[in-house]
Amino acid sequence: MKDKAVLSKVEVTPGEVDAYLKKQPETARVPRSVVLRQILIDDKSLAEKLSAQLAKDPSKFESLARDNSAAPDKGQARTFGEEDLPTEIKEAAFKLEPGQVSPVVEYAGMYLILQQVRTMEAKDADLADVRRRVQLELFRKKGEQALERYIADLKKDTEIHVNRAVLPFEYAGEYRN
Known about the structure:
The chain is α+β, with helices and mostly antiparallel strands and 177 residues long. Helices cover 42% and strands 18% of the residues.
């Protein structure tokens, strides 16, 4: 019903996609990102001890992370977009060279040791993919608005009666008859 009565009438034009991209040009860019391994510790002295070990031999990062990290990834490499990282972690992560290990970074009551795997600079995204994503997002928003209008119109044009006597619960809805 929703597809036939509401969504079949929703349309996103190429002009709307162009206008969206003009207002939000960053949508067409893939931001700078970094691939990191992390060791997350709640004990500062253990974090300092591990940091000292890694300063001597960064190749032990994965095994130390697996044995000591409280992070669910246990030191597996993960990609983080620049905008996804808190300032303290972003500053430490992007200063590193591939293979290099950070000093202990305190964040939110925990202690992190980071190892950079690689950095990827910002670049232009594939325009066809960007246009498709924007079109889908605009369709979703317009569909939600159209559905809300459709339901509001139905409520306006329909008389609804609630038979409280047959309900197995106490009715607390918007219809009070």
